[in-house]
Structures are given as C-alpha cells and as structure tokens.
Amino acid sequence: MGDRRWSDTPRWEAPALAAVACVGVTLRCVRLDLGWFGVDQARDVATALDIVGGRSWPLIGPTMRRVTRLGALYHYFWALPYLLWRDPIAGYWFAACLSTAALVVTWHVARRLWGPIAGVVTAAVAAVHPIWVIDGRIYWAPAALPFIGVLVILVMLDAPSRRRIALVGGLLGLAVQLHLTMAGWVAGVALLVLADRVPPRMLVPGIAAGAFVGAPALWAMVATSAATESGLGALPTRAPHAPLVPRLLAVASLPARVVAGLGRWSEGDANGWILGAATLVLAVVVAGGLLRLLLATLRGDRGARVVLVPGLVTTLLVLGLPGDAWYYYLDSALPLWALAAGALVGTRRPATMRAATRTTMRARYLGAVCALGACALFALSTADWLRRVAAAGYMPIAPAGLTLDGRPGRDAASAGRVTTLAVKRRAGVLAAALGGDFEALWHRVHGPALADATGDNGFWFRWSLDHVSLPVGARTAVTDPRHLAFWYGDDPTAIALAAAPPRAEVDRTRIGPLLAVRYPSILDYDACRADGAAIAVPIRVSPDPRRYGDGTPALPPTLPSRIVCARRVASAPRRLDATTAAAGGAALLADEGGAERRVVAALGGAGTVALAAGGRSAPPARVAELCITGANAAVQLVLDRRADAPAELDLYDVPLGVGCNQSTAAAPSGATEP
C-alpha cells in the first residue's frame, strides 16, 4: 500500500471533493454559537484573554480531572485566536478551522497512499462523521486532537530524517499538553521509530524538541497537585470495565449514541433509524479497513504501519479505561477511522486496479458506495441535529450515552439540558442592562433556570458588563433597581407569566428555552437579618470563570439557621381606569394593597428550607413556596442543613400575582445544567 502518484487524476475527483468540502465546511462553521459554553470554555477563554491582554502569564495548565495538571502550552495554544479577535466566539472559529484542516490533511494522506477513490471516501467520512463535526465546533481540547494526530502521520510518512523527527517530537510535546490521551500517540510513534530502526543519532533532535516543547507538562506534573481545584470528579471513574466484545460494540455505535446523547428531544426519534443504519455501515467499512491495514502492516507496508499504529495504540489505551470514561477520549483516533475507510477501497498502484479481478473491483466499488451512502445519512442527521439545537436553544443531554460503554457512572448519572452559547450571550446582555458591578448584579438574579443561564461561572455576565454599551455610570452604580429571574419556557410558572397581562415595570423576554423576567421585587434584600446582623441574600458564592471549580456553591459553615427579610413598604393603591381593569387590574396591584404574591426560597444542595410570614407557613422542602399579602411585614426562613454540606440559597418573589390569587400556580422546575 505504497505511495501513489498524482498524475492519475480522474475528471470526477474535483467535483466530488468540492461537494465534500462544501458539506464539511458548512457543518463545521455555520452557527458556531450553537455550541455549548460551560465552565471549561469560560476558564479557557478568560485565561486566553488575560494572556493576549498581558494580564497573566500562566506557568501551569488546567487540571485533567484530578489525575494531573496539563502543561502551560495548553493555555497559550488556545490563546492564539484571540490575538486577532477578542470576542469569545473567536475560539470556536479557531476550533472549526483546526477541524477543517484535519479534514484536508486526512484526505491528502489517503490520496497519496491509495488513490483518488480512497481520498474521496476518506474525505467524506472525515467531513460528516458526527463526533468529528460536533467536537470540532467547540472551543475545547478534543477539537485539536485529530489535526495534531493526522499531522504526525503526514510527517512520518516520508523516510525518517533529523528534521522530520524533530518536528514530530515538537508536535508530541505540544499534544500531551492538550490532552492526556495523546500519550498514546507518543507510545505509537516510539513503536514506529523502533520498527524503522532509526539510528540513535537521528533521534537526538526529536528527543530534544520533545523535551523542550513538553517541558511545561513535566513541570506541571512534578510541581503542582491536581487537587488544587475544587469541584472536580476523579478520573478514571469507578464504573466497572465491560467485557471486550460488548465494549467494542459500544464503541462502534458511538456516532449514533453521541448524537442521541446530545439531542434526546424525545424518546422515539423518527431519525433514529437513519443514524443507526449509517453507524452500522460505517462500522463494517472501518472494521474491514482496519483489517486490511493490519495485514498490510504485517507484510511490511510502511505506509499502512504509520497510519495504523499510533491510532491503534491510543484506542487500546482508551479502551482500557473504566466504562464511564467519556467518548471524546477517542477523538485523536478519528483520522485512523476515516483512513481505514479509504484503505478498504483504495489500491496501491494503477496496475493493481487493471490486474484485479472483476469481483475484487466490484467489492471495492460496493464498499465505496456503501461508505458514501453512510456519509450522506450522517450529513443529513448532523444537519438535522444542528437545526433542532438552533430551534430549541439547548441540547438535551443524556450523559450515559456519551460514555465509552453507554452506561452511567459517577460523572454521568443524570440527564439535563445545556443551553447554547447564543442563549448565554443574550442572557448576559439582558442582565448587564440592569447596570451595577458584578457583585451587585449577582445578588439580583434568581430563578430555577439561573444555572442554565449562567452555567459558565458567570463569564457572560462579566463579559457583558465590560463590553455591552451601558448608560454613563452604570458600571459603578445600580441604574435599574429591578431584579431578573429565569424560568424554563415550558415551566407552568413561565407559561403563566407569559400569559399574564402587561405591566410597565415587568419586562418579559424569551431567550431560547428560557423566559427572562425583569421586575420590581417586593422583598427588601437590604433589610435581611440573621441574629440581628445584616446578611446578604441570596446567599451564593461569587463565581470566578478563571478557576474551574470556584463556581461550586458553598454556604458558610457559620450560616444562621434563621433569616428574616422585610417586605418593601407598599405604595398607596392606585385607581385603575376601566381599560386597565379589563386588562387585568388585579395582577397590576399584586404588590400593592392586599393582593397576594408568591415568595420562593430554594436551597441548593443537602438540606431543607421553611417559609413563614404573617401566620402562614410552608413546610420544609428544598424549594419552599408561600403566598403572602400586603399585610405581611416580613418573611422568615428556617434552614436545616449540615454545616459542611455544599449549598446555596435563593430567595425571590414571582411577579404579576402568578401562583396565588391567579389560577396558574405551579412549582418551578429543578433541572440544571449538568
């Protein structure tokens, strides 16, 4: 399976590659704000902006799930796009460009080794493979792994030289600082060097380059403790290992499982059969290609060996992890899977095609047609997934489907929803319009969907305060005294709020799956007391996006068990004209006179909270609700929790009279971003 010449270019190759390129680039680059933006992205973007702004020069990389700390080049590599553009979306464009470049290099390797048919098939698989597309649209380490891996393959294809060995050493020194799974590529390249019997003197530049570029990784491992960041689960997690055959079947089904795990809008998906059929066909094609690469390697074919060994070693190492290790640990092996599909249908020499039997050629053409058919189904399924995310504004997550074995573990036990970058950006802009600094703003945002609106350690709230045009003085003083609460749009409370009559002081905005409501609160948060001393309510830590675990809520150990918050002094009741009364005058007077107003106290974490006011009380619960009237002077909270238990306390009222003297009463949803 040696080197092919480029003189045998058929007429169909250029239009076929153009079509593949259009599909691949479109799937990777359209609406990049549909990706997720969690605490990982918040940390990396904030650190990158600090680097390009000269405010920080990290010497240590991020924690790799409490196994170790990565090298500092991680942060400097991901800061590159922000040298050109300071908007957070720049990192997503950088990731998409890396994914597209990996597609081009993978095609080049297949075309060079096995000819035009193999090149087109390989390019098609790389262009539309759901995992490659989805992970290549996100600002995170897995987006860069296929590019680094296939670049190593390309450099290793030619005969070893001091320059090529040095380049490979430098690439691997960088790779192990992007993700620990790239250590498998180091082992695979070492095996290739041994198989090539490279003279020791030729290895010196490679070892020196690898040591120089990879020195930050060694420093990170020996100089720091991975446990310095809070809120991280250990890896490997403690799920048992699956038997070999079930594990291989689970890995083969990853393309369908990942799309389903990131897009389970309903139990019965009408497009499920499309994904299943495409995944089955691709698995058969890739398995056949891997077998052909293995046989060629055993026969001494160096090109096949260079393609197969590093990706295979990495795959075997990842398969040795516990069952609930995440699917993207295999992202660096994606080029191998695409190249295997090309290897199955490719040929070594034009003469080989002429000498091949008609049956052999038919089998190869059938394999190419099947692979391209599966790619067409993948393209349709991935495009449909993007359409659904755009329409919904979130991804319904089933974490168990995103593990190697497809079963839950300690880090993948519960389902939830993850809002998109576009939704979080809009939520941040809406919050920043209230004005004030971040600390003041952070105590005026509430609601059961707050975690999904700010599941980034407050990054977008801070970013919007710094970059969104606000009135003069808005950054130092509160310009809008209203509060802001987030509900899920399908929450009965949100439905009631959306249907309630209009009011000047209440601003309702639909943001993707969320309903954001800005309203004047009836609670006097400045008058909250505990044992006679003032206490800030809501009680939650102020998140720092630069520290991965600092967003974990934790109440102080000395928190009093009783808190009292006064109600704001009501203004004199207004006289309503006939038009206003017909539009819902009772709701307009919900916080004036004797109309009732629902108050909600939500305790996140272990424990319960009880509410009482004016002789009324709500039983202890994680989310306690109580309807109070204008005659109630104060709201009393009684907390029952362990002193060392992580928790947070939110206290807010529901505007427009919803839930009490209105007919639409419902408990808020408790779902949060996992």
Summed up:
The protein is an alpha+beta fold and 674 residues long. 46% of the residues lie in helices and 12% in strands. It is elongated.
Distinctive features:
12% strand; four-stranded mixed beta sheet; 24 helices; 674 residues; four-stranded antiparallel beta sheet; alpha+beta
What does this entry look like structurally?
- With 674 residues, the chain is an alpha+beta fold.
- It has 2 domains: 31-397, no CATH class; 420-571 and 584-654, no CATH class.
- It is built from 24 helices and 17 strands.
- The strands form 6 sheets. The protein has a 4-stranded mixed sheet, sandwiched between helices. It has a 4-stranded antiparallel sheet with strand order 11-16-13-14, with no helix packed on it.
- Strand 7 (507-511) and strand 8 form a beta hairpin.
- Residues 226-237, 473-477, 571-593 and 662-674 have low confidence and may be disordered.
